[in-house]
């Protein structure tokens, strides 16, 4: 096959921007390709590997690894990024990873995607310990990114069920280059800035050494929901309305011995009502920003109108922070020294620090007589509802539900430090065997400090019970200085929790041609991998004493050892048929040993036609947190249904509208590793000059899926999971639910990756058109043994949304010093969540589908000035808003929109200036 045709096919599988074809007169070097330990001439192989170059990354306006993964159609559509991943309620919440972003190929989760730097592992995130933080990798020093869209446990071990993302650093770099990128939104908020310097000195061939270093500084501003009209949890005509009466202007609750008593009636109405608010009775709920009359008609399935008819609601989803402010500094350096023609040693140092300020809505507090925080009768702000409610007893204290805005937004400063140091030796033995040997130490530290909005529970309750603080501050009013000082005295500000991971790795391999067969050379590789991994997590203060603090269970530092050996063979069976065989044996000190084989083939009967495929087994070892995290008690938000109890006690709010429900979660030392069987089968064709296409069918079956079972799932499947629902023996009201990490029954997923590429030249113009798409045919999942596998594709889901079709398409045109890139990102629609989580009645005309999302980016690059590259781009060219979805922030962040699918920034202008000094 011609070299140019080979270059086209290498670029085929979804390269986002233009790739430079290798010229025919250049020597074709053997390189190591992700998914194999054997060096070979770079060509379209047995495995589907997508390559994205640094040039393509720059022209696409990508400033960080999270944004890069959004361009990969095979990456999942889930809560694995900073926008959606750190704001999630319920059992899937992961606020310990603040500031981090993760890869999730095939939507299998961050734990099932292996992230490498130059083919070697990095330490996992220090907060959650679950996966590698993509944002710790500086893109300025990256030459390319290779994405293996196939399981690779036979080569790399655990974490590689979904695939591998391998960041390749620049090597033998010479010169000094500085660049800056500014990316600002038209609607305001979310400004992004990046400054980087890359320098290298020494020619490896001439001088025998090369040293490269890069430093990048990123500063991103906050983007709040209040800055975008589509972020709105109060759209009753579309079936969306907030389900909380915890409002900035408090609603009054009923209770024995309190002003509202155990219930009240209105004139001419025999109904007994259970909650009231002055603004609701006056028809003035909307006089306070973010408040509205509770839309009871949308919640009749679970919330009795007796509780909400005379209450105000609060759009807390519309008050969320979409994107946290972030400051990040990353640095990487590499020194390579040539010992002689056959051997060289190199040292790599990688470090990053990310500071994120996470900001959540203010505390929601329900007072009670038992807690001593009821509003006293003699308080200066005592609210008398007797003009509206005849039975109102103003001689008794008031209990109320309040969104405590004067305490400030709950604000957390999260600091993530990541590092890796590597010393490695590589070269050639006996002139024909390639070897490499490396020793590395990597790790991550995470620390969370509380800086506002949190306080000691006993002090807050005492302050509220004093009557000095006013929970009914009207329009234009504010707290007194005395109240402000009292609030300040209740706050806790300081260190809250910290986590740490480390990994020490010694690895080595040797490969080469060992035997000449009739069809060509037989190549073998063998290697070993020894690792020591640790993880620990601790609270710096007792979270149970801080009101609504984001507590996480302590985990005393745990250690595990991994010992692995592996072998690989490339067997030329026929002139046009090559088979890859691989096997790996991993022994984990905590979960035992596993052996995983793989077989793949590459068959090219014609110059324009290539068939390829693979079959393998994989495994995923449970993480430290999944095994050993302590037991933690948490609360579910409002509106939880006890389906069994509500059927037996219709209308009883203790069963049909549980205000708050406790649940326990934590690690499970009896977890088994996930195991998988997977395969691919593909075809690559080049039917005519300059055009190539590929189809790669893939399938993955997983058993013993490691999953954080939510209490919602337990309640939904109460017929089968009664042992996890703990009831009061006398009243049969649910006391709490047992949730946490389990081995679920499994999942089955399959689909097709599509790649198209056409490039040509016309009258001095060079143009390239590329499409990288993934069609997900099926994603079926079973939560527990005996449950039927349920199809998830195109359905709303609180974990991942498994879209039927995603693609990234690009058109690049270049001439002389100019080039332009038009980029399209498309995500298909899906069946929406029933309004209000199925807890209400959809309004007439409700659209049950979330519409597709299409985003266009346009950029132009000019290199006509000496040593200078200028790129100007418009992201979201047509200012496309995220499609409407009828869910609010509970379980998935986003009020009326979904950050897993769409970009909230709107139209943005980016400007990149790069100057090479020498």
UniProtKB/TrEMBL annotation:
GO terms for cellular component: cell outer membrane. The keyword Transmembrane applies. Residues 380-877 form the TonB-dependent receptor-like beta-barrel domain. Gene3D superfamilies: TonB-dependent receptor, beta-barrel domain, TonB-dependent receptor, plug domain. It is found in: Cell outer membrane. Keywords: Cell outer membrane, Membrane, Receptor, Signal, TonB box, Transmembrane, Transmembrane beta strand, Transport. InterPro entries: Beta-barrel_TonB (IPR000531), Beta-barrel_TonB_sf (IPR036942), Plug_dom (IPR012910), Plug_dom_sf (IPR037066), TonB-dep_rcpt-like (IPR039426). The keyword Zinc does not apply. Its main location: membrane. Residues 1-21 form the signal peptide. Residues 46-164 form the TonB-dependent receptor plug domain. It comes from the Bacteria. It is a multi-pass membrane protein. Belongs to the TonB-dependent receptor family. This is Iron complex outermembrane receptor protein. It comes from Pseudoduganella flava.
